[in-house]
Each structure stands twice: as structure tokens, then as C-alpha cells.
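Teaching assistant's notes for section 4

Start the section by putting this record on the projector. Ask students to predict, before seeing the second block, whether HAD family hydrolase will look compact or extended. Collect guesses on the board.
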Amino acid sequence: MIFDFGGVLTSSPFEAFARFETERGLPIDIIRRTNAANHLENAWAKFERAEVDIETFDELFAAESLALGAEVRGRDVLPLLQGDLRPEMVEALKRIKAQLKTGCITNNLPANAIGSMTGRSLYIAEVMVLFDHVIESAKIGLRKPDPRIYRMMVETLKVDPNSCVYLDDLGVNLKPAREMGMTTIKVTSGTQAIADLEKATGLRLS
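Reveal the predicted structure now:
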């Protein structure tokens, strides 16, 4: 059982992006569109692979968003990533851990890495110990949807991809997992994810 973190165990940062855009009078979805443009090599991708520092990320993101219609500083986006933990998902994870191997693959930024000062509130230690193995993009220099990151996880857990379930809130990150043979669940809410998980595992999770 392999989980993404943000948008799965926490509420989606997209809600915070939308609030920020409205408050600043920015074009709707400018942050998401900036993240999506050239998504393998843009400022976000480079920062998640720890190839650039926070100053460079701030400038690159500003230039990329400006090219799409409005300047947004990268530094201003970082505080918006702190989704709230979904307690029902944490409870489901506890029940799953009692029966199955668990892993977490997270695309995160060096500023939000587990154990970093700013990241502590986002990666709550007691949730992270529920995973047998955690892979953070900012620590290994690879990020989803690179197929290698999924292979690393199944090799470390010593599991067959065909018997794995993978959850993520982004379709683009589900595709490589599905191609490896995993059952995939696109998370839109905690309630929906738990219902789909119960179906996929046969476990009672709520």
C-alpha cells in the first residue's frame, strides 16, 4: 500500500492556492498553471529535486508565472502548501499498517523536507512512523512521475507491483504506477479514498 502525502493524507493545497489568488486579485489558477507548464523541468520540478536553492526557485517561479500573465513569487507559494491532516485518512492508514506493508512517496520541497524546521508542521512525525519506508523527492533528486521512484519503493518494500495499491491526488502521478501493474486510486476526498481503499483491500477502514 503506497501513499502520496499532500492532498491524500492532508487536504489539497489547491484550496489555499485559490484563496491566495482571490485575495491578491490574481488570475484564477495562475499557480496551478505555472506548476503544470513544462512540468518536468520547471522551477517547481527543479526545487522538488533539490537542484536549485530557495532564492533561485523564487526568481524562476516569478518569471514563469509572469510569462503566463501575472507575477507570483515562489517564496509566497511555499506557505500555501501546508494542507491540514485528514484524521480519517490517518486512522485508515493505521488500520492498513496493522495488516500490510506501507510506503509513502512524496514530491516535496527542500524547505518542507521531513525534519527541516519549516517542514515539521507539515510532515507530522507520528504519521510518518506509520510507513515502513518513505521516499522524499527533495532528498533523492528524483520526483514523480519518474518511474524510477516507484521502482525504488517496490524494491525496498520487497513487494510485487501487481499486489500494490497506490493513492495520489494527481492523475499524472498515478499513470506510471498503473503501468507497473499497481491498482491506483485518484484521491478527491478522504471519504472517497477510504471507500475505494476498502474495495481494493477488503479491509474495514472506517
